Amino acid sequence: MTREEIFQYTQGKYGTKPEYLWKKYPQYAVLRHQQNRKWYAIIMDVKSENLGLEGNKIEDIMDIKLNPETVDILQSEKGFLPAYHMNNSNWISIRIDLVDNDQICNFIDASYELTGK
Questions:
Q1: Do residues 20 and 26 touch, judged by C-beta distance below 8 A?
Q2: Using CA atoms, how far apart are residues 48 and 54, in angstroms rounded to an integer?
Q3: Would the CA dihedral through 51, 86, 88, 91 be positive or negative?
Q4: CA 66 to CA 104: how far, in whole Å?
Q5: Over the stretch 46-57, which tens digit does the pLDDT of each residue have?
Q6: How far is CA 53 from CA 48, 71, 80, 82, 113, in A?
Q7: CATH domain 3-115 topology
Q8: Domain of life of the organism in this record (predicted)?
């Protein structure tokens, strides 16, 4: 799934558009609730070496919030990493080019629900 496809999905389902908050990181896009302003996802382009991966590639990742049990399970699955710059027990990084689109949408929905409280 591409970041553009994610943005189309979240705008269609939740009416949210990406927010670009940092000049230093112009590709970092935050998705947040309109009512409570809490983040439910952030999409970033990060050097693979900063993620503990080999190589010098730029990776598109998405951090989302899930329940701690799900985070624990997913960290051993292909396409998932400990959350980049977020709480590792409640957030997880998804390598969006390696995980199934339907799965990504389901995780976005779960994160939206968890952060809506």
A1: yes
A2: 6
A3: negative
A4: 12
A5: 988 888 888 889
A6: 5, 19, 12, 12, 30
A7: Aspartate Aminotransferase, domain 1 (3.90.1150)
A8: Bacteria
